[in-house]
Amino acid sequence: MANDNETSGSVKQQLAKLFEESLRVTVPEELDVDPLIAPCQNANFGDYQCNNAMGLWSKVKGKGTQFKGPKPIGEAIKENLPASEIIDKCSIAGAGFVNVVLSRQWIAKSIRKMLIDGIEIWAPKLPVKRAVVDFSSPNIAKEMHVGHLRSTIIGDTLARMLEYSNVEVLRRNHVGDWGTQFGMLIEFLFEKFPNGEVTNDQAIGDLEAFYKASKLRFDSDPAFKEKAQRAVVSLQAGEEKYRTAWAKICEISRSGYEKLYQRLGVHLEEKGESFYNPYIPGVLEILSKHGLIEESEGARVIFIEGKKVPLIVVKSDGGYNYASTDLAALWYRLNEEKAEWIIYVTDVGQREHFEMFFTAAKRAGWLPAEDNNYPRASHVGFGLVLGEDGKRFRTRSTETVKLVDLLDEAKSKCKAALIERGKDKEWTQEELDKTAEAVGYGAVKYADLKNNRTTNYTFSFDQMLNDKGNTAVYLLYAHARICSIIRKSGKDIEELKKTGTLDLAHADERTLGLHLLQFPEVVEESCTNLLPNGLCEYLYNLSEDFTRFYTNCQVVGSEEESSRLLLCEATAVVMRKCFYLLGITPVYKI
What we know:
Oligomer: single chain
Distance between the termini: 44 Å
Helix content: 40-55%
């Protein structure tokens, strides 16, 4: 029987524990050696390999060691492995690489255990208990556009993966609800409603148009500009009339983006710039005591080594800015919210700002000097959304594309495709609507998440709504087909989980089983690297492995029907968890 240690963690982690024991016996004098475990690049050699021999040889040669080179070290590592039901056999390749073939019976047993106990038992174990994910963060009085889409869905997926890994995630919406623009908005509001009778969003109408009209007045009317600047002072001084008007503008704006979050299935807790405002003076005082803040050209700044322009924390007019707010927010998240990992999801254009502000936090002793230690702050940068002309994605009138219009179009295109396939004759209107939403919104999310976030990507409805290739439509249809196979068998899958056995005798069954078992380490890697595209790649490859298995292994009506139905169910369970982590709603029939 396997001991408790052997049955916890991903395959990679469990193999690492076995190889750690072997390394302690093989090179007892080398205490700081971590097992280097990786999947085999070539399946002909095995499933995983241990790559420690070469590195160890460079450490021990010339120290009177018994070994004559890396290969004998590899042999010794292999021989000193403790007995385990995980491993079927090992072999040595090249300069001491230890190749491992996993036991087919153990793979089957692990999958069956997941089916009985639930996929939560496959959750990765991360070295943090609490994290802040700061994402979406629209500006008040401006509509959310296609640029906010990336921050919102990348942030949501990172939060979901961390939550699955048993990390408490504080999902923060750092909205732009403070600053000089509120002076012109409030003053414009007073002009439009001199008696303060604004009660709802209909009274103001399109908030974006309201913003543009107030900006036009601000730029063209010096008297209005002066009043707007005085309004900022009154707002910051806490005058009730101004605070009430500010709160009303925020409330109207908030109700607009809340509707979008509901459509996207995204949950956020708002703590905007205004929340951190009271903390700024105290935080700047702390930084001053550390000798970090200096006077420069009337402003208060922090000079950062290697940067020509300093980080301005108090402007020459005495006002605060992004840097002062961000420093206050970081201090609050570390000291009040006790977060161990703070993750900021914004476009790559803000990379230098984050580099400078993280450096200032390290100099203040808030963050460790080494980036791989905790507490940690990470900037998750993403590229632009481009149109099919290769330029920034805009409407024909060169406006940025509103997120609400984009989601409406995705849904309507999906609905039209379903009606074309005659689904309006088979399904209720509600089923048609729900499926069009799940597939349409899922397609938009997946088209973004499957790319490495740091690159620009081209927004194309034709590509993302294609039912062939690496798209959400193809993957959602693949999941629906698996559900259909299980339904058509007429078997009670819940009963089968309790009574059936799983045997992976066919090569394609084993390949699919191994891929399923690698799910936890893919999630762990995607979390650690803050790259959701790794999970998308895993999901697509899983679907391909399933197709190969289903093509070559008859399921319904075969002698192995029970075992193969369990493998179908395990695939569907893992696919559904992938969809959940990517914020996509699965469909069960198509």
